[in-house]
Fold this protein.
Amino acid sequence: MNSIKFLILIPITIILASCASLNKSECLSSDWQAIGHKDGSSGRDATYVEKHSKTCSEFGVKLDAAEYKTGYKAGLTQFCTAEKGYWLGETGQEFKDVCPSELADAYLRGYEKGHYLYRVLQDID
């Protein structure tokens, strides 16, 4: 019986841990530019910053929106490339509409090419 409870608790623990966008240590270090860069280069939506703000406010830490935005924009330049779009499409991942207009065309073209290949391979299987 204890092993069944243990097996049930593992996924619940993982789910609850994934709810917080940052941990206490990350909030206290407050390197908002680095956090923004990580989010941008991961293709997270710009509204993800709201999760960080809410999480860190629970630890008494106020988010520096200007620093976060600077890092986020820099991170998007790494994410919003034709190569990254191609990889996402080729691996069957969902299209992430996060790129600013000056980067969106190349990213979209890459995604469409990769996703076309993904669909062809799915049809073959």
